[in-house]
Amino acid sequence: MRSLSPDIQSIGRLAKTKRDMLGLTQKDVAGLCNVGIRFLSDLENGKPTLEIAKVFHVMRALGLEIHITPRGPR
């Protein structure tokens, strides 16, 4: 998979793509991560007000990592 820009829509698309690649339903991942199906749907649809700890938890469960690095000068 290629690296994506770190906006919530890109993170959500990446989570959905990986879930689909693993052949898992939203219900499967929600149960695995102990989050609601609604939360997972909101994540995949790029809702901007999600709890970041839960986002990290779901991404780890899907085998994905989020890396944050300082931006260069503007």
Silhouette: globular
Question: What would you report as the Rg, rounded to the nearest angstrom?
Answer: 12 Å
Uncertain runs with pLDDT below 50, 5 residues or more? Answer: none
CATH fold group: 434 Repressor (Amino-terminal Domain)
Largest sheet: none
Number of domains: 1
Which CATH-level-2 architecture?
Answer: Orthogonal Bundle
Q: Label the structural class.
A: mainly alpha
Compute the number of strand runs.
0
Summarize model confidence as the mean pLDDT: 90
Order of helices and strands: HHHH
Question: Between the first and last Cα atoms, what is the distance in angstroms?
Answer: 28 Å
Count of DSSP-assigned helices:
4
CATH class: Mainly Alpha
How would you describe this structure to a colleague?
By secondary structure, the protein is mostly helical. The protein has a single domain, classed as 434 Repressor (Amino-terminal Domain), CATH 1.10.260.40. 54% of the residues lie in helices and 0% in strands. It has four helices and no strands. Helix 2 (26-33) packs across helix 3 (37-44). The longest helix is centred in the first third of the chain and has 14 residues, at 8-21. It is globular and about 40 Å long. The model has no long low-confidence stretch (mean pLDDT 90).
